[in-house]
Design goal:
This protein is α/β, with parallel strands linked by helices. It has 9 helices and 15 strands. A 7-stranded parallel beta sheet has the order 3-2-1-4-5-7-12, sandwiched between helices. Strands 6-15 form a two-stranded parallel sheet. The chain has a two-stranded parallel ribbon with strand order 8-11. Strand 4, helix 3 and strand 5 form a beta-alpha-beta unit. Helix 1 crosses helix 6, helix 3 runs parallel beside helix 4 and helix 7 crosses helix 9.
Length: 313
């Protein structure tokens, strides 16, 4: 079996950590990047983290025009598709952006088939699910609260059928609240770290909902372990499998906030409102099914790493 993997969305928060993880395990990676500037930023990230990039190649292209003849090799083993725009608060209900995501993702599937990939994986999130979903099982829900969730479901259904027809094992990883160094600056964790370190006041909702954070470095390790377990025996009977990736323990969101406050030794004034968000409590049957053992970095240790990475310049 070939040892090479294509990654789209490699400059995103999770994408760059997955790329770094797979390179450290000896895989040959091809990152599809939309611009030379993004390519340069990714290389700088990898160099900061002392990652050997000798087994890394690039295709610089917009996804809408991506084709198999742009790649150095005619055959790749796997394709990890992490490119999906409009994941912030302003974009999740933008149907134009979310529809473009579906179009670009279908183009990636076509390329994966042309490159003889035997494995195709993409990522989803809690936002795919309905509001008060209770325990979130590893299924695709019938309804969603956002355009993001609606279009993720649309692509999932298309990809499942397409991959069955083309003998590609398709897996959908659903991620629950990734965080870590160099996270999106608008995330709750990054915003809280910055404000608490400067002792600035912060206002929150009720923060009573159950939540689930897992360090991005743990997340990509789970993805890599899963791939390693199935790559030698691609079972098409499991096509379209959804795997929840999350911490084994969900906690009230307020506990996470206070942990950040404590690590920052902050004197910020905090206020909590009455608006309650939806809880995030995932089932982890998939991880247990495959016997995946992984660390769960303590939340406060992750926050310490984040603080070390923050620059106020």
């Amino acid at each position: 079996m070939d040892n090479s993997i294509v990654i789209t969305g490699a400059t995103g928060f999770i994408g760059k950590y997955l790329l770094m993880n797979l390179l450290s395990k000896g895989y040959s990676l091809c990152a599809v990047i939309r611009s030379e500037e993004k390519k340069r930023e990714l290389v700088e990230f990898l160099e900061r983290n002392k990652t050997d990039i000798n087994n890394l190649s690039f295709v610089v292209s917009e996804l809408r025009v991506l084709s198999a003849d742009m790649f150095d090799k005619p055959v790749y083993d796997a394709w990890f598709h992490l490119a999906w725009g409009g994941v912030n608060r302003d974009g999740v209900n933008d149907y134009e952006i979310q529809e473009e995501n579906v179009v670009f993702s279908k183009q990636c599937l076509n390329c994966a088939a042309d490159l003889k990939c035997s494995f195709f994986a993409d990522l989803g999130s809690r936002a795919e699910c309905s509001g008060d979903a209770g325990l979130i099982e590893e299924t695709m829900t019938a309804t969603s609260l956002s355009a993001y969730g609606t279009k993720k479901k649309e692509f999932y259904e298309f990809a499942k059928q397409y991959c069955e027809k083309n003998s590609i094992r398709y897996v959908h990883f659903r991620i629950f609240s990734a965080f870590g160094p160099e996270d999106h600056p608008w995330s709750l964790v990054m915003t809280a770290c910055r404000n608490f370190l400067k002792n600035e006041p912060m206002q929150f909702g009720a923060c009573t909902q159950m939540w689930n954070y897992l360090d991005v470095r743990d997340i990509v390790e789970i993805v890599a372990i899963f791939y390693e377990k199935i790559r030698e025996n691609v079972n098409l009977q499991e096509n379209g499998e959804i795997i929840n990736i999350a911490n084994s323990i969900s906690r009230p969101l307020k506990e996470y906030v206070m942990d950040i406050y404590d690590v920052c030794s902050s004197s910020s004034q905090l206020s909590f409102g009455t608006n309650e968000g939806y809880s995030s409590v995932p089932s982890l049957k998939g991880i247990r099914k495959y016997g995946i053992e992984y660390r769960e970095m303590p939340f406060k240790d992750s926050i310490r790493d984040i603080i070390e990475s923050i620059s106020f310049d």
